[in-house]
Specification:
The structure is a single chain. The chain is of the alpha/beta class and 405 residues long. It has two domains: 170 residues, TIM Barrel (Alpha-Beta Barrel); 138 residues, Lyase, Ornithine Decarboxylase, Chain A, domain 1 (Beta Barrel), CATH 2.40.37.10. The protein contains 13 helices and 19 strands. Strands 11-14-17-16-15-18-10-1-19 form a nine-stranded mixed beta sheet. It has an eight-stranded parallel beta sheet with strand order 8-7-6-5-4-3-2-9. Bound molecules: pyridoxal-5'-phosphate (PLP).
Length: 405
């Protein structure tokens, strides 16, 4: 319904990604109910998985998130520039990164090795302010984080920097490899490793505010992983981490993004007509083609050529032939007697929550041989985000409550 309201209010757009912020707030509330003993960090990296970082961060805080998570320091700094004062953790650092800016902005910085601790300490001294750092352990993912063998040295150096007043260790944390495969033996092994690494650091005198390891799938399926805080990304946006563990609805979640376009051209073609580059699709007989003005420059996966599902004129269609840079074609079929003809300007819905019969991001993931995370995150800058159900009143209230010193 809000969808229709929006259509009458907005100028006609080539394409749009509607972002339902009330669904996002409700998803955060649902996730908090899944992890009642833990605080919730909404992960808003990568432009909030393609949904738009600042509006989504604000909505997540309205829904009850008390932390925000970012990969890049630039993302964390952009949150601060937008006036967001809630605690923010950012974890993907490189030597020479904006450590000073992050310390000045009161951003929690993740430290996975001595070099990073040195950078944080130097920044704290330069700025004259204690750096908030979180030590990251590799409990088995084999990606970022300190190896268990290097943990004692890192803990000891962090303790020394704390004693000097240069840093405060606010968190101890790690990340799962296979949380989306419940029962995978690595899950129990990582939990065990993480517990030991935390216990060691605390025995050595660190007093973190938060210990955390759970991403979305662990938040939804593994209560013993919740500790003090859960770091949910994809589930905040109403997308299931994996179809194998359940649908969004199974977890009380609702997809936040609807990707739609305005059909740019409708035309009759004879049978035997090749469609799009390479002529990988040829019409069976006389038919109607619809041109959808979205392509791989907008993040529509070329791998979904010939397969991606689209709702047009109340029916599911498939991409006919190749997805091009800016456009693709759907075969609308021959005119049916008494059938409703699709015209230029008709709405083509690529994915959304699914309750109007439209496909979901998961359907596109399947069509393109990828995961739904990638489908939503890759939607490009040329597609305007249109925010629905922004709640300005709550936003203002949040702004006052979240101000911290
Ligand atoms: C992206 C990310 C998350 C969020 O993962 P989801 O599966 O989207 O919930 C959490 N922690 C880290 C370190 C991440 O990189």
């Amino acid at each position: 319904m809000s969808h229709q309201t929006h259509q009458t209010q907005q100028p006609a757009l080539r394409a749009r990604a509607e972002i339902d912020l009330s669904a996002l707030r409700a998803n955060v509330r649902a996730l908090r109910a899944h992890a009642p003993g833990a605080a919730l960090m909404a992960v808003v990296k990568a432009d909030a998985y393609g949904h738009g970082m600042v509006p989504c961060a604000r909505a997540a805080l309205q829904g009850g998130a008390t932390w925000l998570g970012a990969a890049l320091p630039q993302e964390a700094l952009a949150l601060r520039e937008a006036g967001i004062t809630a605690p923010v953790l950012c974890w993907l650092w490189t030597p020479g990164g904006p450590w000073r800016e992050a310390v000045e902005a009161g951003v929690d910085v993740s430290v996975s090795g001595l070099w990073a601790l040195d950078e944080a300490v130097a920044a704290a001294r330069a700025v004259g302010r204690t750096a908030r750092i979180q030590l990251k352990a590799d409990s088995g993912l084999g990606r970022n984080g300190a190896q268990p063998a290097d943990w004692p040295e890192l803990v000891e150096a962090a303790r020394a920097a704390e004693a000097e007043g240069a840093v405060k260790v606010t968190g101890l944390w790690s990340h799962f490899a296979c949380a989306d495969e419940p029962g995978h033996p690595s899950i129990a092994a990582q939990l065990d490793s993480f517990r030991h690494l935390v216990a060691y650091a605390e025995k050595e005198g660190l007093e973190p505010e938060v210990r955390h390891i759970a991403n979305s799938p662990a938040t939804l399926t593994l209560p013993e992983s919740h500790f003090d805080l859960v770091r949910t990304g994809i589930a905040v946006y109403g997308v299931s981490p994996s179809p194998d563990i359940g649908t969004p609805a199974d977890f009380g979640l609702r997809p936040v993004m609807t990707l739609a376009a305005s059909v740019a051209l409708v035309k009759q073609v004879p049978g035997g007509h090749g469609v799009s580059y390479g002529h990988h699709y040829v019409t069976d007989g006389e038919t109607t083609l619809g041109l959808v003005p979205l392509g791989y420059a907008d993040g529509i996966p070329r791998h979904a050529s010939g397969r991606g599902p689209v709702l047009v004129g109340g029916k599911r269609r498939r991409v006919a032939g190749r997805v091009a840079m800016d456009q693709f074609v759907v075969d609308l079929g021959p005119d049916e007697p008494g059938g409703q003809r699709v015209a230029q300007g008709a709405e083509a819905v690529l994915f959304g929550p699914g309750d109007r019969g439209e496909p979901t991001a998961e359907d596109w993931a399947e069509a393109a041989g990828t995961i739904a995370y990638e489908i939503v995150t890759r939607i490009g800058k040329r597609v305007p985000r249109v925010y629905l159900n922004e709640d300005h009143e709550d936003q203002d209230r949040e702004g006052h409550e979240a101000r911290e010193e």
